[in-house]
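fyi for ur records
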Amino acid sequence: MKLPIKRGVASVLIVVLACSLVVLPTKASAVSKLSPEFGEQTLTSTAFQTIMVVLRDEPVIEHTKNRTGTDKLDTNSIKSDSNSSSYENKLIMTQSTVVNKIKQMSPDAEIGHNLTWTLNGFTMKARGVDLSKIADIKEVKAVYPIPMGPMPELSAIVAETPTAGSEDLVLAHRNEEVLTGLHVKDVWQMKDAKGNPIEGSEIVIAVIDTGVDYTHPDLGGCLGPSCKVIGGYDFGDDDSDPMDQMGHGTLVAGTIAADGRLKGTAPKAKLLAYKVLPTLTTTTPTSDVLLAPGNIYPAIDQAAKDGADIINISLTDESRLKTDYGKEIIENLETLNIIVVAAAGNSGSAVYCDDPFSPDLCPKGYSAPLLTTFTEPNVITVGGSVSTDMPVARVAPFSSMGPSIDFRLKPDLIAPAYTFNTATG
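which gave:
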């Protein structure tokens, strides 16, 4: 078991980043299987809606856990178990059957990505008027919206990306003050249960973001099993190349595991890169960009299959809501001893409603709850701090600060949102 080591590395990543009534089964109506977040206007609209379709059968992790009576599992044990593999094939076949039924009733529906380990379902786009018909399919357990927030003009985003000006991602010198203020070097002096320095050895960290520039010298310079970035996937473009175009994911990856002229907090860790945004051009459909939040959960599912020990999600979508399926995904990750570290978001806080420097973050009556699945108690939620050079660090005005929508005190920690550089463009 690598669990003792993982907890040590998690401490580094933190600074960065009964009884029930028995009833006879009855057929659920389409209305009862539709999330109450769907309003009448949506259900009578011909506009496309981005949704998560969850099927009745339990996902692979739950199935294996229930079948074996084991509370904790690991990726290799599931992959080597023929029963689990057969069960996953069954889920895939059932999903294919449901997709065919949907295409028959809604030919212009667009199927996204599927999940089998942490959730049994798939993402898709379908017209609002077809959602009730989709929910009425017998294999379907529930249908949820995938909320989408506002997006700036793509031309403005493309103009700011490293590739737009044919610029290479360049190395910047990391602020020594931040390394000292976060006690990163102190952590490097500590030893794990095996007596090795806590530098991330034998740990695999998944970065779910805008991709990673794996050609960067401090990130190994290559992509593959023998590289620092051992694998990944581009869910935005649906291909196997998770190359970063925007730079954000590369910055995050460098903060976590750069190992060259720059050092990340866990320099000996291996990385998995999952890109959830499509490659941006001035002709990229806005709808493809807005689908990015829907790609986060399939990326989580793939990270679990690929053997991640830690999943880092530094993206924020201000419209994310807590969902039953999101909670199920997080619980199944816990079964695999996978640590999830997620950004709190950039929605600001009611604490700063009298702050003359950030009036736009505090409209009248704004309470700034954290509206996200990633406020579950077994997720390390990280907010941004103003700086490390102040007598007392405080939450940055733009950083979301709780409570969560279900009144948990979040974020768990704050880390500098300014003052330092890492592998970026």
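The chain is about 30% helix and 15% strand. thats all i got for now
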